[in-house]
Amino acid sequence: MSRNPSRARPVSRQVLADHVHEAILESLMDGRLEPGAPISIDGTARDLDVSPTPVREALARLEHTGLVVRVALKGYRVAPVFSREDFAHLMDARLVIEPVLTRWTAQRMFPELLAELRKAITDLKTAPRGPSFAEFRDYFEADERFHRLIAENSGNPFMHDAYTALGGQVQRFRLFGGVGITDAEFAIAEHQAVFHALEQGDPAAAAAAMTDHVSKVRQRSIQDAPPG
Questions:
Q1: Fewer CB within 10 A of the terminal residue: the chain, N end or C end?
Q2: pTM over 0.90
Q3: Mean pLDDT of all residues in the chain?
C-alpha cells in the first residue's frame, strides 16, 4: 500500500474510512493487489497504520463494486478481472436501467443539475489520463459523477438502487491500469450528446443518447477485456 493516513491523521472516522478505501482502491486499480490474492485485514491495517475497523469497512464497500470477494471462513480476495462475457452481461444490465433513468431525469431537469452535469463534462475534458490510478482518478470520478447525478435525480429510488448495485464504471476503469484512458475522446463526445438532450428537455432523445453511449462502452469493454 502506498498511502499512510497517519501522516495527516483525519479527525473524523468517516474521513479515515474514506482515506483507507481510496488507498485500497488505488492498489486494486493499479494491479498491485493481483486477482485471486488474499487481502489480510490485519496486514493492511499495519501497512496503513490504522486499526482493522476502517479496513473492514473499506473492503465491505469494495465488495459491492465487485473488485473484491468475500470467501466464507477465508476473508477477502481480489476478484478476477472481468472477462468479455462478464462485460457483456454487465453492460446489458446497464442498457436496461440507464436509458430509463435518463428519460425520467430529462423530465425533472433544473438549472442546478444542468450546471453539475456540465461541470462533470468539463472535468472529464481537463482530467489527466495517465497509466496509474493516481493519474486518472479525477477522470474516473468525473465519469462516475455524471452517471450518478442522472441516476440520483430520476425520482425513482428503486431504479437508483438497481443502478448502484451494478458498481458503476469501476470494472471498466480497471482495464486502464497501466495503460491510461484509451477512449476519452469517444466517451466525452457521448456524454456531451446525453447532456445536450437533457439540456433540451427531450426525454426520448436523452434516453437514446444514453443507449448509444452504453452500447459503445459495451463494445469497447468487450474489445479491451481478456477472453474468458
A1: C
A2: no
A3: 93
Give the three cell numbers for residue 205. 432523445
- Grid look-up 442498457 returns 95
Cα-Cα end-to-end distance for the chain:
29
Distances (CA, A) of 101 to 142, 160, 170: 18, 8, 19
Is residue 167 packed enough to be buried (19+ CB in 10 Å), middle (13-18) or exposed (0-12)? Answer: middle
Apex CA 115: angle with CA 109 and CA 120, to 5°? 110
What's the CATH architecture for 5-78? Orthogonal Bundle (1.10)
List, by residue range, all CATH 1.20.120.530 domains of the chain. 84-224
Tell me the pLDDT of the chain (228 aa) as tens digits: 545 544 445 447 788 889 999 999 999 999 999 999 999 999 999 999 999 999 999 999 999 889 999 998 889 999 999 999 999 999 999 999 999 999 999 999 999 999 999 999 999 999 999 999 999 999 999 999 999 999 999 999 999 999 999 988 899 999 999 999 999 999 999 999 999 999 999 999 999 999 999 999 999 999 999 987
CA distance 223 to 201: 34
Decide if domain 84-224 falls under CATH 1.20.120.530: yes
Q: Which residue ranges does the chain devote to CATH 1.10.10.10?
A: 5-78
Task: Yes or no: say if 85 and 222 are a contact pair by the CB < 8 Å rule.
Answer: no
Report the C-alpha gap between 131 and 159 in whole angstroms. 33
User: Which residues share a beta bridge with 41?
Assistant: none
